[in-house]
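Query structure, 458 C-alpha cells:
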C-alpha cells in the first residue's frame, strides 16, 4: 500500500500553512523544531498556536526573523541543505525544490539559474518553510502527494521587483510547468503564495479531486490573515487503494524538446526563485510517486495496514527516457544521477554500451512520472553532452509495500516491506539509516542490515 497526502487548497496555500497542516496532522512540534535547527541557521523564532478560522480549528505556525539576513542564491542554499543532518530523502526533496525555483527565476530574470538571488525566499524563514515542509512529509511517511485545484486569488501586489499581478510570474510559471489546475474565487487578496506554489506544485504526483484512499490523519493549517473564506489549508494522510491511479497525468504534453515517431528520435540542439508577490497569508516568507529511491526513505513511523498482504498489484503510468553518450567525462555521471533523483526521477541507471565505430559509451536510462519529465529533460540536456533523448510511455505494476521503523540492538532502522499473496516477499532496510546506526554503534553495515531484516521479518 502507498501512503499519500492530499492537500485541499480552497484558500490557496503558503509555506506556514503547509507546516501548520502537517503539525496538525500529527507531526510533533519538537520534531519540526529539530528539523529546522538541523539547517544550522540563526536569527529565527518559531511559534505554534491553535486558532479559529471561521468555523474551523487549525494550527498556526509562525516563523519569525529577529536579526538581519543576507540575500542568498542557490549556490549558498544547496550546500547548506546537503551538509545538514537531515535525512537523505528530505535533502533530495528540498534540493529539488530550490533547483526548480532557480531555473524558473533564471528564466524570469534572464540570468543563469545559479546566479539568481532569491531575495525574500532566500531569507532564513522561507528556507525553513521549504525544508520544513519536506521534513514534515517525510516524518508522516508520505510517499505520494496529490493536490486539489488551487485558489490563487487575484489583484496586484507591491514587491521588491515592483508592482506585479497575482499570481506572480514565478508562481504562475511553476504552476504552468506542472500542469496544476488553478482558479480564483474572488478578486483581491493573494491566496497562493510563491512558497506554497513551489512546494505543492513541484512535489505533487497529481492534481484533481480526492484520491481513493483510507484517511488516517487530518490536519488544518492556518494562514496569518482573515478573509471572507476560512484561511485554512487541509491535508489528509492515509493509504491509497491499491488499484487506484491518478485520473490525469500532467506535464508530458509540454515536455519536449524531444519528439519521436515510428521509432525514430528527432534530436534537438541543447537549449542553452521566487520573489514575494504579496502577503496573502501574512508575512509569508515572500518570494521532489515518490521516487523508488526516495521511497526507501518514505516513512519514519510504523504504519499498520488493515489490508497488509493484499495481493492486488498497484499500477501507474511512467515515462522512460534514454540517451547514449560516448564523449562525456565519466566523473560527471555521479553528479548527473544526483541531479536527476533530486528532480523527482523514480530511477536512474547507467549501462555500458558499444556504439558506432567501436566506441565504448554509456546509456543513461531515467524513469519518471509524466509530470516530472520536463525537469528530467532539462537536467539531461544541461548536465550531459547529449543532443537528443528518446522516450516511451510505459505502464507498470508494483507489489503492495509499506515502510516501517523497526528496533534493533543497535538502534532504529526503517525497512520497506513488499507483499505477495498475503506474505512478505522482501524486506529492504534503509541504507542511510543502516549506515548512520552502524557508525554510531561502531559495528559493520552488514550487522545492522541483517539485524533490521530479522526484526522486520520476525
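Result returned for the query:
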Amino acid at each position: 500500500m502507498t501512503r499519500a497526502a492530499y492537500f485541499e487548497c480552497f484558500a490557496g496555500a503558503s509555506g506556514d500553512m503547509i507546516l501548520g497542516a502537517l503539525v496538525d496532522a500529527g507531526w510533533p512540534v519538537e520534531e519540526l523544531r529539530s528539523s529546522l535547527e538541523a539547517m544550522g541557521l540563526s536569527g529565527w523564532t518559531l511559534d505554534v498556536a491553535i486558532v479559529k478560522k471561521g468555523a474551523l480549528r487549525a494550527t498556526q505556525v509562525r516563523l519569525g526573523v529577529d536579526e538581519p539576513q543576507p540575500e542568498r542564491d542557490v549556490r549558498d542554499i544547496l550546500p547548506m541543505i546537503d551538509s545538514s543532518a537531515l535525512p537523505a530523502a528530505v535533502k533530495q526533496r528540498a534540493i529539488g525544490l530550490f533547483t526548480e525555483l532557480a531555473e524558473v527565476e533564471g528564466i524570469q530574470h534572464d540570468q543563469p539559474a545559479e546566479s539568481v538571488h532569491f531575495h525574500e525566499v532566500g531569507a532564513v524563514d522561507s528556507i525553513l518553510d521549504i525544508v520544513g515542509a519536506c521534513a514534515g512529509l517525510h516524518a508522516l511517511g508520505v510517499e505520494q502527494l496529490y493536490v486539489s485545484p488551487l485558489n490563487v486569488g487575484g489583484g496586484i501586489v507591491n514587491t521588491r521587483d515592483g508592482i506585479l499581478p497575482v499570481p506572480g510570474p514565478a508562481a504562475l510559471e511553476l504552476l504552468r510547468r506542472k500542469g496544476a489546475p488553478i482558479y480564483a474565487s474572488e478578486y483581491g487578496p493573494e491566496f497562493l503564495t510563491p512558497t506554497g506554489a513551489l512546494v505543492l506544485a513541484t512535489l505533487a504526483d497529481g492534481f484533481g479531486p480526492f484520491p481513493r484512499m483510507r484517511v488516517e490523519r487530518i490536519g488544518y493549517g492556518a494562514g496569518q490573515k482573515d478573509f471572507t473564506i476560512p484561511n485554512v489549508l487541509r491535508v489528509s494522510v492515509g493509504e491509497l487503494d491499491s488499484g487506484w491511479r491518478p485520473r490525469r497525468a500532467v506535464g508530458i504534453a509540454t515536455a519536449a524538446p524531444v519528439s519521436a515517431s515510428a521509432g525514430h528520435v528527432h534530436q534537438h540542439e541543447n537549449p542553452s526563485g521566487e520573489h514575494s508577490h504579496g502577503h496573502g497569508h501574512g508575512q509569508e516568507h515572500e518570494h521532489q510517486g515518490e521516487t523508488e529511491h526516495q521511497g526507501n526513505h518514505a516513512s519514519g513511523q510504523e504504519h499498520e495496514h488493515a489490508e497488509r498482504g493484499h495481493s492486488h498489484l498497484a499500477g501507474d503510468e511512467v515515462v522512460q527516457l534514454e540517451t547514449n553518450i560516448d564523449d562525456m567525462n565519466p566523473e560527471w555521471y555521479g553528479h548527473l544521477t544526483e541531479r536527476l533523483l533530486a528532480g523527482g526521477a523514480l530511477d536512474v541507471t547507467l549501462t555500458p554500451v558499444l556504439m558506432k565505430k567501436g566506441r565504448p559509451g554509456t546509456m543513461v536510462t531515467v524513469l519518471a512520472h509524466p509530470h516530472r519529465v520536463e525537469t528530467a529533460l532539462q537536467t539531461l540536456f544541461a548536465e550531459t553532452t547529449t543532443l537528443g533523448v528518446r522516450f516511451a510511455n510505459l505502464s507498470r505494476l508494483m507489489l503492495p509495500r509499506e515502510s516501517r521503523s523497526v528496533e534493533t540492538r543497535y538502534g532504529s532502522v526503517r525497512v520497506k516491506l513488499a507483499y505477495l499473496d498475503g506474505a512478505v516477499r522482501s524486506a529492504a532496510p534503509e541504507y542511510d539509516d543502516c549506515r548512520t546506526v552502524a557508525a554510531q554503534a561502531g559495528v559493520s553495515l552488514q550487522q545492522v542490515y541483517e539485524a533490521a531484516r530479522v526484526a522486520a521479518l520476525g
